Amino acid sequence: MDVNSQPLNGDTHPNKQFLNEVERLQCVLKEQDKLASIGLITAGILHEIRNPLNFIFNFSKVNAGLLDEFREVLAKGVNNLTHDDFDELKDIEVNLNRNLNKITENGQRAMRIIVNMLAQSRRENAEDFESTDINQLVDEFVKLAYHGIRGNNSVFNLSIITDFDASIGKVNINAHHLGRGLLNIVSNACYAMEQKSKQVQDGTYTPQLTVATKKTTEGFRISIMDNGTGIPDEIKENIFKPFFTTKTSSDGTGLGLSMTHDIIQKLHKGKLEVNSKAGEYTEFVIDIPVKY
Ligand SMILES: Nc1ncnc2c1ncn2[C@@H]1O[C@H](COP(=O)(O)OP(=O)(O)OP(=O)(O)O)[C@@H](O)[C@H]1O
Ligand SMILES: [Mg+2]
Fold first, then answer.
1. What is the pLDDT averaged over residues 216-241?
2. For residues 4 and 17, what is the distance between their CA atoms, to the nearest angstrom?
3. In angstroms, rounded to a whole number, what is the distance separating the alpha carbons of residues 214 and 217?
4. Hey, whose CA ends up nearest to atom 31 of ligand 1?
5. How many domains would you assign to the chain?
6. 39 or 106: which leads in pLDDT
7. Domain boundary at 83, 107, 123, which?
8. Ligand in closest contact with the CA of 241
9. Which residues line ligand 1 (CB under 6 A)?
10. Are both 198 and 222 inside the same structural domain?
11. Same domain, residue pair 191 and 99
């Protein structure tokens, strides 16, 4: 705004006008911040619930197939059913029921994610810190991410090497959010290895995930390394930016690493770093300080 060009009369003194304008712009910025954070929460929810929704979708598909088999056996007519047929019906019923439980569990998980993320957006994060077994948390989320990928691609096999430092013990962290971060890092790793196994089909490639934890002088370190597609140097600087993705819109939102970065650096006052060589490997290193 050109302050000098304003008339000099009464209430419309240039300084006052200038201050009014600053106030107005501050309000606009505040409003924009609010909109941005609403966008982030919405995208965050979309990002997080894709995993349980995948389970729901896959188990529903399996159940539809089982139901077809069930109907085929029943179609023989009650007078023609053999003992084997009955056994088969019983088996199908057990599987249907097991899958239905998984569908319910994952529906509840999706609901919990929405409730937690909305609650999170309304309050400060500090109160959610709790004493947590880091090795158990890492192990749980590595398995969860692997099963997420296997749900979509049952032929994808992975060798997982773990090296857990038991001396870390229990530490005070926000398990809910750190779990989300780990889930994203490991899901990214699995995706990169799945892509590479599609590229290298001559039997020379074995996907391998190496997960290690270590007590450090300030706290603890988690490192997650995959031998997938790697990250080219020219995109390395972009991967922590919100909405940056090299995946199709049905495969990724591009919010995973920016959220993970915030969870580690802002929420836990830690550090998240990446080492990678295109075509060879990617390693994410998480350093979190704790008071022992
Ligand atoms: N382990 C990895 N190997 C290769 N590339 C990776 C790896 N991790 C991340 N990337 C790159 O970083 C980009 C950003 O990752 P980020 O987790 O933020 O989003 P996304 O995985 O694409 O989407 P979403 O997390 O919503 O599924 C990815 O699209 C990919 O290009
Ligand atoms: Mg991701």
1. 97
2. 11
3. 10
4. 246
5. 2
6. 106
7. 123
8. 1
9. 47, 184, 188-189, 192, 226, 228-231, 239, 244-247, 252-258, 282
10. yes
11. no
Query: Ligand 1 test: best mutation among 142, 158, 194, 257, most atoms within 8 Å of CB?
Result: 257
169, 281: one domain = yes
| Protein residue with least CA distance to atom 2, ligand 1 | 189
Q: What's the gap between Cα 232 and its chain centre?
A: 22
Tell me how far the alpha carbon of residue 199 lies from the centroid of ligand 1, in angstroms: 18
DSSP 263: I
- Name the closest-CA residue to atom 20, ligand 1: 254
Mean pLDDT of 240-244: 88
Q: What is the pLDDT of residues 77-136, one digit of tens each?
A: 989 999 999 999 999 999 999 999 999 999 998 888 888 777 766 654 445 688 999 999
Please check whether residue 222 is in contact with residue 286, taking contact to mean a CB–CB distance below 8 angstroms.
yes
Q: Which domain does 98 fall in, by range?
A: 1-123
CATH at residue 247: 3.30.565.10
Domain boundary among 123, 150, 175: 123
Task: Grade residue 12 by pLDDT with cuts at 50, 70 and 90.
Answer: low
168 with 230, same domain? yes
Tell me what pLDDT residue 46 has. 77
- Pocket probe for ligand 1: among 146, 225, 239, the residue whose CB has the most ligand atoms within 8 Å is 239
Give DSSP secondary structure letters for 266-292: IIS--EEEEEEETTTEEEEEEEEE---
Q: Rounded CA gap, 117 and 109, in Å?
A: 12
With bands split at pLDDT 50, 70 and 90, how would you rate the model's confidence at 240? very high
Which residues, in sequence order, are bridge partners of residue 225? 210, 283
